[in-house]
Amino acid sequence: MTHRSSDAAPTQSVTGGAGEAPVVLVLADDLIWATRLADAVKAAGGVPKAARRAQGLAASGATHAIVDLTARAYDGVAAVRDIADTGTSVVAVGQHDDTALRKAAIDAGAERVFTYRALFEDGPRSIARWLGR
Q1: Alpha-carbon gap, residue 93 to 110, rounded angstroms
Q2: Which label site among 4, 37, 51, 131 has the fewest CB atoms less than 10 Å from its CB?
């Protein structure tokens, strides 16, 4: 169950209605991580839209995006940059010990880079905080 404080700003969805669930593009080419991220988005009160390539952003109508940095089908840092350049709120997920990749994602426009472990252990709560829900 998701709780919102009464002073929290309403979240705008793709349809523009206050309080509606935000649409979140989940960009991941690994089926297990794509499923885990989508499940965490749902548990956080969002609507996940899965994609295997960054070009899926426009078709998804997403207001937010999560990018798996270690994908093989796309360049994770370039995907973060492309998504951030559209004004979409974007976070990434990557290995805890790859500080260079995590820094590159932040430099490319990611608001935050979560570790796989952090999202595995506390994904819904972390994503809910990011979504402001």
Answers
A1: 10
A2: 4
* Residue with the two structure tokens 């070009």: 55
Token duo for residue 82:
């492309």
Under 8 Å between Cβ of 12 and 46: no
Span 35-70, pLDDT tens digits? 999 999 999 999 999 998 777 777 788 999 999 999
| All structural domains of the chain | 23-131 (3.40.50.2300)
What is the secondary structure of 8-71 as a DSSP string?
SPPPB-TT--BTPPPEEEEE-SSHHHHHHHHHHHHHTT-EEEEESSTTHHHHHT-SEEEEETT-
Report the C-alpha gap between 85 and 9 in whole angstroms. 24
| φ, ψ (nearest 5 deg) of residue 93 | -135, 140
CA distances from 81 to 22, 56, 102 (A): 21, 14, 13
